[in-house]
Amino acid sequence: MDASTLTYIFVGISFALYIGIAIWSRVGSTKEFYVAGGGVHPVVNGMATAADWMSAASFISMAGLIAFLGYDGSVYLMGWTGGYVLLALLLAPYLRKFGKFTVPDFIGDRYYSDAARLVAVICLIFISFTYVAGQMRGVGIVFSRFLEVDIDLGVIIGMAIVFMYAVLGGMKGITYTQVAQYCVLIFAYTVPAIFISMLITGNPVPQFGLGSEVTDGSGLTVLGKLDSVLTDLGFTAYTEGTKSTTDIFAITAALMVGTAGLPHVIVRFFTVPKVSDARKSAGWALVFIAILYTTAPAVGAFARINFINEVNETAYAETPQWFKNWEDLGLVGWTDKNGDGNIQYRAGAPFDGKPTFDGEKRGPNGERVITNSVTTSANEVYVDRDIMVLANPEIAKLPDWVIALVAAGSLAAALSTAAGLLLVISSAVSHDLMKKTFKPEITDKEELLYARIAAACAIGVAGYLGINPPGFVAQVVAFAFGLAAASLFPAILMGIFSRRMNKEGAIAGMLVGLLFTFAYIVYFKFIAPEANTAANWWFGISPEGIGSLGMVLNFLVATAVSKASSAPPAEVQELVDTIRIPSGAGAGHKH
Amino acid sequence: MQSPEVKEETTSKDISERSNDYWKANIALLLKLLAVWFVVSFGAGILFVDELNTIELFGVKLGFWFAQQGSIYVFVALIFVYTSAMRKLDRKYGVDDEGDA
User: Fold this and answer.
1) Do A581 and B95 touch (CB under 8 A)?
2) pLDDT tens-digit profile of A271-324?
3) Contacting residues of A for B59, CB less than 8 Å apart
4) Considering the domain boundaries, does residue A478 fall inside one?
């Protein structure tokens, strides 16, 4: 059987599994729809959280980013895991004790204000849609590369699957599907990693592979070899960064705090029975996440070595099939600057921007003709970072079933995150907007219907964004984390740890944090992209890291404003006292 | 001889005072754990990465290892330490959720 047939089988089986779970876990009440009835076992919830959290970006892009960024890629590794420590210690147990359904619910009640609730809803919807567009695109890319269907058709198939289990099963359906998706994705990630680690170092544990000797007889370790090869080719050493320490610090902080403030992650901790379960669950979530996140740096390093070995100084005619496949999709491009017919891989951009091709026209070596204006650097090859994980099994010449597995795994990663995001969007609309703001008189049944309609509409919008991706999707990911860090996280944290924080302070803080971060990113990414250099940044902080400064501003403004205005009412202060004590959380029910 | 006054004092120690003590103990624990969280990531992985990179263990520079591996292992351990320490605090101050459904 060829790779394509195997991929159809693997993807087909995994999709059948997800649909089966959807039918088994249909729900009948809003509590089940929003928080799975609050009866999910903490380890199960941890696994679901891990799948929810690890998106197409974690699965497909992260190892590729690390492969090309080296040390600078550490910001993602530390940022996207360290946030769970903040979540476990500072937010999850208290929000579980609060015991309602959504993040705006907490902000609205704690700050006794519908305006605060509305600000939270806006942040939530913006953050979640930014994120979900990327997931749908990931689904489309995987379909088009591995199943040779149109990207648009791939997006529509993905939408239909998510529709089945999110609309029918709500949070309960999503939770149990995510558990299955976690198993698929972690298996699909670690199996090729183990194979490649064996091939390159002879050590089957990828985490140890980083420091193991390369089996090419050079006597160098993986990292040592990368450092020496890359410096020879004109790059910075792999273990040294190019970003400033300040910027690395700010980006890591923004990603950590942003992770802890992401609504679709927080809401997962509303689904466990008890406060102590919320703490445990966060620990388990990080265990499941760490399995992938400690493998990723090894995968990245191996991929970079493999890529250089296979491509650099190779004649185009001799390049492996994967190189040509990705070139056909436009994610790899080569232009023979020195006319020797060989591919030279060096530091610097080969030409301006992403490759644009002159139709199907082929050059003298059979390569696709590129119309970009070439740069003066010696580098001749463009490679999209996103292809590394997907191409890795082919680069390492692994068997076809491993390639099929990676396709199924990346779909699991994208779909599980998309479903979690769509759920928080729909519950923000049906619960926070309809029930709590505009139509308080609706019954539980009607609210559930609104939730299902909202989920269906959100899937439609997400699919549209996947088929017609706004050119800026990749650039606005910084938004999601920056805004969560600068708006939601401080408001929730102060709501728990300060009895004195009042609505004036919280709203002022959220708005200042939000607007500052928003303005900074929009200025450098859209208004004046040519000025987006370290020399122009405030305190040397890039737009990716500016959320951490926004967070500090939020804290300062909120504290100053609340000092100057009256203390919150007595019942709100009592609410704060209640959420600080674990005992007495509302009971969940068993499934 | 057991003095009756002392016994009365402990039972009359009111709930709000007890929850205050619980909260203080909780904050003290949080600060300790967050200090470790900061040291392994922002400290070892970022601020002192160059100094630590001069040390090489098992073929990996130490600063780089903390940034891409070590910090993550410590994060996992921190949450489990927190979970069990909080369980003890909850019991000590009688606010645990053991009996909750």
Assistant:
1) yes
2) 888 888 899 999 999 999 999 999 999 999 998 988 888 888 888 888 888 888
3) 210-213, 221-224
4) no
Q: Which of B47, B59, B75 sits opposite A82 (nearest CB)?
A: B75
Please classify residue B28 by burial: count the beta carbons closer than 10 Å to its beta carbon, then call 0-12 exposed, 13-18 middle and 19+ buried: exposed
Report CA-CA distances (Å) from A213 to A67, A197, A281, A300, A398.
Answer: 18, 11, 37, 16, 21
What was the pLDDT predicted at A5?
A: 87
Examine the fold and report which residue of A469, A489, A506 is the final residue of a domain before the chain moves on: A469
| Nearest Cα residue to A82 out of B18, B54, B95, B39 | B39
Interface test with A, best of B76, B78, B98 (most A CBs within 10 A): B76
Return the structure tokens found at A422. Answer: 């769509």
Number of folded domains in chain A?
A: 2
Chain A nearest-CA distance from B46, in A, is: 7
Beta-carbon separation of A82 and B41 below 8 A: yes
Q: Do residues A369 and A445 share a domain? A: no
Cβ–Cβ of A583/B95 closer than 8 Å? yes
Contacts of A223 in chain B (CB under 8 A): 59-61, 64
What pLDDT does A151 receive? 75
The answer to whether residues A83 and A183 belong to one domain is yes
Residue A275 to residue B73, Cβ atoms within 8 A: no
Determine, for residues B59 and A224 on separate chains, whether the beta-carbon distance falls below 8 Å.
yes
Q: Which of A78, A243, A573 to mutate to test the interface with B (most CBs of B within 10 A)?
A: A78
**Measured between CB atoms, does A135 come within 8 Å of chain B?**
no
Are A302 and A204 in contact by the 8 Å Cβ rule? The answer is no
pLDDT attached to residue A475: 58
pLDDT score for A586: 60
First vs last C-alpha separation in chain B = 42
- By residue range, what is the domain housing residue A356? 314-388
The whole-number pLDDT of residue B82 equals 95
Nearest-angstrom CA–CA distance, A94 and B54: 42
Task: Please indicate, yes or no, whether residues A424 and A365 belong to a single structural domain of this protein.
Answer: no
Give the C-alpha separation, A89 to B83, whole Å: 9
Answer yes or no: is A488 within a domain. Answer: no
Q: Which residues have a Cβ under 8 Å from the Cβ of A495 and sit 6 or more positions away?
A: A106, A107, A110, A111, A501, A506, A576
Q: Which two tokens stand for residue A438?
A: 């505009």
- What does the pLDDT look like over B31-70, one tens digit per residue? 999 999 999 999 999 999 888 888 888 878 899 999 999 9
Closest CA of chain A from B3, distance in Å: 32
Tell me what pLDDT residue A472 has. 54
CATH number, domain with residue A456: 1.20.1730.10
Mutate to test the interface with B, among A40, A85, A226, A272 (most CBs of B within 10 A): A85
**A187 near B CB under 8 A:** no
- Cα A541 versus chain centre, distance: 22
What does the alpha-carbon distance between residue B98 and residue A582 come to, in Å, rounded to a whole number?
10
> Is the pLDDT at B72 greater than 80, yes or no?
yes
**Ranges of chain A whose pLDDT falls below 70:** 469-478, 585-591
In angstroms, what is the C-alpha Rg of chain A? 24
- Give the Cα separation of A126 and B47 in Å (integer): 33
Residue A441: is it exposed, middle or buried by C-beta count within 10 angstroms (0-12/13-18/19+)?
exposed
Closest to A297 (Cα-Cα) out of A570, A515, A74, A518: A74
Specify whether A106 is located in the same domain as A41.
Answer: yes
From B13's Cα to the closest Cα of chain A, the distance in A is: 17
